[in-house]
Design brief:
It contains seven helices and six strands. It has 289 residues and is an alpha+beta fold. A six-stranded antiparallel β-sheet has the order 1-2-4-5-6-3, with helices on one face. A hairpin with a 2-residue loop joins strand 1 and strand 2. It is globular, with a radius of gyration of 22 Å.
Amino acid sequence: MTEAASKGDIRRAWLDEDEADLSAARVAKHRLVEQVRRLVDAAFQLDTGDVGYHPDDANGTGPDSDGASSSDTGSYTGSGTNSGPDTDSGSSSSSSSSTSTSTSTDTDRAARFMALAAEVESLADRIGALPHIPRTDIAVEGVNASLARRHDTLLVERSTINGRGNPLAPPMRMWADGEVIRGEAYFTAPYEGPAGRVHGAWVAACFDEIMGCAQGASGAFGYTGTLTITLRRATPLYTKITYEAGFSHREGRKIHGWGRCYADGRLTAEATGLFVIPANGRMGHGTTE
């Protein structure tokens, strides 16, 4: 799916490197991060067994015992990046599995969850005690390149969208195809907006990331000034989502770009963007004009 970027490609900060060129410890860290993503996904989808919030739900006699709580009904209507077609479907199918026929009591489940929480807390403490990447004031400088190893400053390692070392990233994978940057993402339940669909904010964030990389074909990088997203149809979960982005033209310190997003070959969203090169030509991730 991906290929190593050439040494002279200034977009390389975003693009995957050949695993053979990475240290064994970094490869192992990537494996750890991937398992953390799995943990987050699994924890998010844990079933607490309660249908609603009424104490009689355990006996199936509460006001929401028909399997759909009042807070679920119509919760996916509206406009903007959180809307999509078929928004009147509700969530009764997801709640129907949590009925009074369950053999587990609330106390049983609570005990299991608390035991798991203790295990995760212990693991987090162990990881927290290990050496960390040195940082300055993150709000001002981000990663301090003078102290951190250079690879830790690269977006392919730390980005919230495609960072191999960032457990919050979906992650998106990106590679160069001439002047065009291509990418793939796979979104699971934690990234849901409307039922069964990717939250529009994540669709937009991926555009920002891949177009931010693609602008490098201009020979420079700028910060995002304007990002315009047009959502053509809902972007589904649990489906390979493909992105493509490119550089359009440059006007002085202004770089213009475009992007498109597909699911199963169908266009789901497209974008245009304006990126502004800082007056000193320097970017926070170490790239320069």
